[in-house]
Amino acid sequence: MTAEEPSESPLESTVDSTVESTVDSTAEPPPGTPPDPDLNARHLGLVEPSLAEVYDAIRDADREMNRAAAKRADAIYTAQRVLADVGRARAEAAELAGGRRPLWSPEEATKEEFACEVGALLRLPRRTAETLIEASRTLAEDLPATREALSSGSISYRHAQVIMDQAWGIRMGDDPESAARARAVFEDVLVPVAEVLTVAKLADRARRVRERTHPETITTRHQKSVEDRHVVFQALNDGMASLFVTGDAEKVQAAYHRTLDAALTLQGPKETRTLTQIAVDVLTDVLIGGVTPDGLGAGVAAQVNVTVPVLTLLGKSEEPGYLAGYGPIDPDTARRLAAGAPSFTRLLTHPETGVVLSMGRDTYKVPAALKKWLEVRDETCTFPGCRRSAKRSDLDHSVEWQHGGETDAMNLAHLCPYHHAVKSYTRWTPRHLGDGRIEWTSPAGYSYIVEPSADMRPPRKPTPTPKPPAPVVDVWNLDPEPDNPDNPTTF
Fold this sequence. Notes:
about 500 residues; alpha+beta; four-stranded mixed sheet; three-stranded antiparallel sheet; about 45% helix; about 10% strand; disordered N terminus
């Protein structure tokens, strides 16, 4: 546009027209705009960009995310196939070399290296990484229609996960062809509706379709599924947490109803708690202090490590305490747990703990005090992304004892049994950085630093400010007055 050309923006022309005449509120709205008596159609048409363009951008971005998920699955599957070839080559080389066979075969070691690599690279827990790898294989080999819909962006990865979760259960060990045909029918029914249903509605539909198409009876499947029962702890905000129990439907439901029945008996005119609150209290009281049907557990209570700053314990500070396996807790709760409850382990933080942090090469066995110190420092397995409790992990010499490693706080770290095996039988290697941090180097050459859960180092003492030097006094000239010939000093 040149300087001589007239310029008139839509907004300016509208302003001019409003001066000369009133706005025609009966003008036709832009195409696709629903009628709204509270909106002026002409004003709505001035929105830049239009609402339709914004919605199109949202949909396009979502489709791009879906295509990216498919691209990631393809890359993982490609790496999986390449490493499978590598594992076989390593197995052949090991067989030719002879020697003692390790606990993990070369194929197994390569497979576990890859799972750990994906988990560390994408910051995923071990199980999540393994599920992602298996999902990538499933999309490539078992569910081609689902993979195609994801690659086109028409369904999300969460929709694909719903289909995969149900398809994984359609298997028959002695007749894989029948299972493959059943999965194909299952997929043909679900993929088209996945493009229009929410994830929750698709999950409901998928369960019903799977039940109709599965070649095995539900009795046979239940007998296999019951082996996967488990309990999961999840930390929440503000000192709260959740406990998830997965098991036989009739047992879990019976436990739920019994909890509610017990809670109902405790309700009364003087009870201020809601039924839900009472139910939670009943369940936790029974689990912590109750007895199993076999009589086991009588007098056994949960063991919890609580780290309490000294000033908080003395009531001189409101600094939070720290509950191992959870995180910060309010000062009052920390004081109560440290006050003498027999089911809790008390550990008070102090600038000087008095714990012997190194035994050098004098002994392989880790002293009890150092074990406790390391348990609080690490809190969990120290492999990248692992959350297995230190209580259920091995205390490992990072540099093996037989290779000159010392029984030292900076050469000891907790590793769960799985990641202990990863360290021993794969090319993942740890290195202590001297301050509780551990650097892990993966077989691919990537480095990951694991921070300690608690900083157990004594606080640095402030360096005292040096005092200014004392002024030098001239003892031979104590008279502050300068020499004055008109006022001689008399002795």
